[in-house]
Amino acid sequence: MLIDEALNDYSVVWAAAGHPHAVFPTSFSELKIALAAKVMKVGD
Asked: Which Gene3D superfamilies does its entry note (predicted)?
């Protein structure tokens, strides 16, 4: 699993929960830990 390092620029990250109307606020750190994600630069 990858997570874009640019998301760390935001104090709140809105993540999807399997449905277009099911989103939840979290932090970059919490999302990274929950996903066991590797931080990478994804875009330019």
From this structure: YbaK/aminoacyl-tRNA synthetase-associated domain
Going by their DSSP bridges, the two strands 22-26 and 13-19 should be labelled as antiparallel
Average pLDDT of 4-14? 97
CA distance 13 to 9: 9
How far apart CA 5 and CA 9 sit, in angstroms, is 8
Give the global pTM. 0.81
Which SS3 state, helix, strand or coil, does residue 8 take?
Answer: helix
- Average pLDDT taken over every residue of the chain: 95
